Amino acid sequence: MSEKKGVPKIKWKLIKVPEEVWAELKRITARRKIAIWKLLEETLSYWRTQQLEHHATPGLTLDKVSWYAFKISSSVGELKANPTKDNLFLLEKTCNQISERLGIKTDEVLLSASQYIKKPTPRNRAVLNQATKHVIAQIISKWGGRE
Prior knowledge:
Layout: H1 19-32, H2 36-51, H3 62-81, H4 85-102, H5 107-118, H6 122-143
Helix pairs in contact: 2-6, 3-4, 3-6, 4-5, 5-6
């Protein structure tokens, strides 16, 4: 994920939407003062959280689930408190462990974290928080609620 100086570059794509949808996107983003892609990212994150299938992963205990949720929360918290490339690197390490060990995609967290480092605004912080909450929800979903 890392590119030059540890900050990934966004690759942009175009999509076609009906005019009515475009007008609604423009209205909402103007009111909230955010970019359309950030609204779409929030919407996708919310949708994914709602669509999670609760299939438990064998061998995943409450202790491990708690640890991974704590670990990503701590990494993101440290990055928000001190948005440096070193902290982004540590967050990448944590995200890679979660991806490899639990099979959870953490790309959104890394992308939003790199955007937060570039521009640590409240809006970028909210996007980072939303992406992190989505990963934590997936971690909990992998556990399946069994003791």
